[in-house]
Amino acid sequence: MKLSSLIKFTILNVAITSSFTLYANPVNTYVGIPKQDTQFAQFLEKNRNKNVFLNLTIKNPNEFDDISSGYRGVSPTFYVASLGKQAYEVYIECDKINNSQAEDTIGKCSPFVTWNERTGNLKGKFTIKDQGKNKMGSRLFYLIAEKSSQMTVVVKEHLGMSESGDGYSFSTKDGNEFYIYNAGGASSLKGESNIIENATICLKFSPNNGDITSISKGKCQ
User: Fold this and answer.
1) In its keyword annotation, does this UniProt entry include Signal (predicted)?
2) What is the model's pTM?
3) At CB < 8 A and 24+ separation, what contacts does 166-174 make?
4) Distance, CA of 217 to CA of 198 (rounded, Å)
């Protein structure tokens, strides 16, 4: 092989490897209790302007209304542990999703962000936006809810048909519920038969309205 050809091949190989590494790296993830864990504040600081996945547990029932209905009925919020003497405030923004069928404020982020009042679990993809300090001197961050094309869940059980009879709901092991529209069985979704108890499945969503469009067996790839 000529030297020039070898150089071209090496450059191409590096480019392909770099490209794969860029897209293979997972989104940064935080799992924990933000009110008790100072690492959550550190996570916010380190991931400014980045897309992240949050799997939060809210322990204090007094915070549930702030998440469901939002602060003054506008933006869902929850408590964050201080980092040293520095206090933090966090607000969730659902404008990019804005589910028109939402029954509460956090519902405007659904189905891409899930909130379960029974378990206190809040889960979804967000972009972290640093807003500096507010008038009280607290560090202010916005969590911009982002749409996802797919989500891995573990089925718990079927919950029965809707009152209209045009679809049904099922629950997942993490305490969330999803609705399947199938025109009363006249128009089944692709892979609908995979929704069985204890099954791990991948839900595919419509980018427009968040409706489930298909279901595949196993974890999302």
Assistant:
1) yes
2) 0.73
3) 170/195, 174/114, 174/116, 174/119, 174/121, 174/123
4) 12
